[in-house]
Amino acid sequence: MHFVKNNLVLSLAAMALLSACNIFGSKQNDTVDDVFKQGNIDPNLVPNSVSYVPLYPFINNVRNPLDVIVGYDELVYVVADNDENTPEDNEIMVFNGKAELVFRLAILGATDITQDRRLHTYIAGRYYSVADKSINLAAVYHIENLAAGNPKFNDTLKHFACDESRRNTAFRGQDDINVQFTGLATLFDNTLYVARSGPRNDVTGIARPDNGVLVFNSNGENIGFASGLTPTQSSLKSAAGITAIATQAGPPQRLSGISTSPNFYLALGNPDYALEYRAIGIQATLDPDQGMVYGENTNFLNFDNTKANRFLYESFRFKQPSDIFFAPDANAYIFVTDKATDSLYVFTNIGYEGVNPPANSNVKKQIIVSFGGSGADGKASGPFNFIDPSGVCYFRRMVLVADKGNNRICRYMLNTDLQ
């Protein structure tokens, strides 16, 4: 059940953005590039030490944003939950680099969004059964030409039929209705990862556990499952209560330099599971006999206190992480939003909390730049505060946060990157 909300704000500027972008190139739009790089910076908010500073304008005309990405077309995509009691009101909002709304599309129960290198968009939502409208199941909508204002629904991956292990199993009633697709991410070759969460997690049966990650090729065929992850137990390779997934591939488009790694990162934010580690890295290794094998990423196990004060893999570091994102540039930072602490956390690609000190600095350890919380007034409405942050992404040194409780998309950049 999906429909388009035609909007007069679909502009020639948006079309110019799209037409200037090709699959292995980047746009040359000086105005948009300047906004992405700088925004409008309040000099009173730029500290002397290394820190993130806000870039204005924030995107304020969104209600309950659930997810945010910058696509390979370099447009900003936001999943908005306009009425938390009415899944039909969920929608995708598309903004250009100047924070102007250019298109919107309603998707039943939309929660997550990603885009591959073909500029195909994937949206996790719900799907009503044709035979029985009282049944709605998890679905991933595969759409072309979304931002151009002419969305083409290419395919819909529907639970439970999209899982090869369920092709010969019957509908499980409420258990299947309770399954959710909780995260989407793509690889360099347009492989799609779909994170799934649900009540049935028997590892001895023919059907795969509900908690886990399904793998699809660019044609929408289920070609694998991240077997080896523990579906209900706390571990460094747990899939219990996944709330987000990220890969190392991301925009901007480029002929070379994009990561070809199949590794991924998980946020495990479901409070129903008692977990010691809630933001983890999963290493995928191709075995000649077993195929792809998924296990813990040992890069994060080095707690070197001479180089950092805090670490990704500290016990109980997170309470309820809502999203995770890997910066696909030379910095390779990992970003985690935690809705329980209303904060954004930043780590290096080996799990040290903080960013690299400036080249001319006497500081030898990673500089912690994580921020958030309720603020001095307790209202969490300031530029460095969040209420229930639900999504995070990174593009050209800029961090975007879906600040759900404040109905806005916030944008930040390290002050050292502004010099």
Tell the overall outline: globular
User: What would the average pLDDT be, to the nearest integer?
Assistant: 89
Q: Element order, helices and strands?
A: EHHEEEEEEEEEHEEEEEEEEEEEEEEE
Unreliable stretches (pLDDT < 50, length at least 5) are: 1-38
Discrete helix count: 3
Largest sheet strand order: 1-6-5-4-3
Largest sheet data: 5 strands, antiparallel
> For the terminal residues, how far apart are their CA atoms?
48 Å
CATH architecture, by name, is 6 Propeller
Structural write-up:
This protein is mainly β and 419 residues long. The protein has a single domain (2-24, 44-418), classed as Neuraminidase (6 Propeller), CATH 2.120.10. The chain is built from 3 helices and 25 strands. It has helices spanning 12-19, 30-37, 174-177; strands at residues 2-4, 52-54, 65-70, 76-81, 90-95, 101-107, 112-115, 121-128, 136-144, 152-158, 180-186, 192-197, 212-216, 222-225, 244-247, 264-267, 279-287, 291-296, 321-326, 334-338, 343-347, 371-372, 389-395, 398-403, 408-414. The strands form 6 sheets. It has a 5-stranded antiparallel beta sheet with strand order 1-6-5-4-3, with no helix packed on it. Strands 2-25-24-23 form a 4-stranded antiparallel beta sheet, with no helix packed on it. Strands 7-8-9-10 form a 4-stranded antiparallel beta sheet, with no helix packed on it. A hairpin with a 4-residue loop joins strand 24 (398-403) and strand 25 (408-414). The longest helix is centred in the first third of the chain and has 8 residues, at 12-19. It is globular. The model is unreliable at 1-38 (pLDDT under 50).
